[in-house]
Every structure is written in structure tokens, then in C-alpha cells.
Design a protein that fits this description.
Layout: H1 3-24, H2 26-30, E1 39-43, H3 49-66, E2 70-74, H4 81-89, E3 96-101, H5 102-111, E4 124-132, E5 135-140, H6 149-158, E6 164-167, H7 173-185, E7 190-193, H8 197-205, E8 211-215, H9 216-225, E9 228-233, E10 260-266, H10 271-285, H11 288-296, E11 300-301, H12 306-327
Parallel strand pairs: 1-2, 1-3, 6-7, 6-8
Antiparallel strand pairs: 3-10, 4-10, 4-11, 5-8, 5-9
Amino acid sequence: MTLKSRLYGSLVALVALTAAAVVATPALAQTPNYPSKSVRVIVPVPAGGAADMMARMVAAHLQAKWGQPFIVDNRPGAGSSLGMDVVAKAAPDGYTIGMGNIAANAINPAVRPGAFPYQPVKDFAAISMVGATPLILVVNADKVPARTLPDFINFLKANPGKLSYGSSGVGSSLHLGMELMLLQTGTKMVHIPYKGSAPMVAELIAGQTEASMDAATTSLPHVKTGKLRALGVSSKERAFFAPDVPPIADVIPGFNVQPWHGMMAPAGTPQAIVNKLSEEIQAFLRTPEAEAKLRDAGVVRVGSSARDFQQAMDDEFETYKKVVKDAGIKPD
């Protein structure tokens, strides 16, 4: 082989290697300096409350870390769908992200298919689930003799369709969580929807209903007074706010119903940006400061990877579609 041929061959090989490197890291090549300007953080609920707090603490950390403004923009309305629609329709460049939640991204679209201006899974890129709030299964201590979940299941089987449970409304996580438990245990109860947890708990204490799967913040104070009895938490592990209450999953393997909030971006956002955001949010959530703030709000820290969060959303949407179908739930 001549010197000219060898040089030509080496040049071809170098060009091929360079091209392969570019193809292997297209997203990295597109986003070398992200963020280079302000980022809008859409929060689909009013200011105040746990979801808003989570979004603001994450935004403040990212702003301090990267030196660019992360501006929180509250867009409440229509069960969080107005704000999430803003995220779904934003340019997929990483400069609009949002604090999604189980209602807007899994439950409501399953209960009311076609009623929302976005696709709950396809229109979003998951970044990281920030926190979750396990529910607690409670019963009226005077009307229900059961002291454990197996006892309660047997009590329901002995009284099919004779007992009722309350929820904060049709299609709420409290409603679908209870229906999932009933379906998985082959039991039946009458659903009584209320306009929020407060009136629902008041009626439960008064004996107008027998049970509920409720947020711990509204039910635990009454558990402590003995008016309600806690039979299980809806997370796979024991919850820090009720360490003596066993998980429902101890009796119903795999049971896991937890209202969650998590950061997401429009679908099509470069994976390099998604990963950069996800890794930094995860690192922040592992700090004692972040965990303390979440615990103060009654929230369990999650901090999942983008991939795990996406899988969780996909799985939950399919689960709730099946619950809606099998339980015959009709939107109000």
C-alpha cells in the first residue's frame, strides 16, 4: 500500500469516528450551556399548599445552582389541566417545565377520556417525581368492629353493599384508591362523594358513612381522639406520619395509591436537558434540608429518575383506566 493510500485510509477512519461520536451524543451537542436564560416553572394549582411549596423549593435550588432565574408561574383551574396544558403546548426546549400531579396526569384523563386538551402521557417528558402523600384507610370506630384490614375485608364480605364510604369527589384519588381496594378484595361498598375532605370526614365521624381512604392531615387527628380507627396506609412502606399503621400492601400485595407531584417538561424536550434537570433535582431531594421541608408538609420524599417517573405515570394511567372500567365509574 502506498503512503498516499495509507493517509487516505486514516483520514476516512478519522471522519467516521468523528461522525459516530456526533451521532451518539446529539442531545449533548444541542445543549452545552443549559440553562442560558430564565426558565418558567408552571404550577397548576394556586399559590400556597404542598404542591406550590415543592415547586418553589425546587425552583429556588435550581436557580441558585445554575445562576439563571427559575420563575414560578401559578396557573390553577380545571383540576390542574389548565396549567398542564400550558406545559404540554410549550416549546420543547427546557425553558418551560411544570409541576405535574396524579390528578392531571393519571386519574382525571382516565375518568374523563377526551375531556382534556392534552394527552396525559404522550404530551409530557417526565423529569423527577418530587414527593408523594400516602392515604390512610380509616373507619368509624363505633360502627365498624374491625381492628385490622383482614377483619374489615371479612366484615365487608359479610355485609355486601350494605356499608358506604366517602370521598372528596368522583374521580379523586380517594375515590379511585378505595375502588381499587374493593376490586382487589372482591368486596362492595356504596360510594358517597363530597365536595372536599373536610365535610367527608365530618360525616364519617357522625356515622353517616362507615369508611374512607383519606389524606392523613384530615383524618389522623381524629384517629388520635379515638373517633376514627386507622387500618392501613396506601403506600408500600409504613409512612413516617403513622409508623404504627401497616401498609395495605401487607394484605393486598402490590397495592400502592399515593397522590404525587413531579416535575415534567413538554414531550420532545432533549433528553440531555431532561437528564440534567432530573439528576440535579434528585441530588437536592437527598439533602436534609429538602427532606425536612417535605416532612413538615406531610410529604414523603421520592426523587425518582426520569425513566422511573415515566414508567410510574404510564403504569398508573393504565391502572386507573382499568379501575374506572371495572368499577363502572361515570364522571359527574
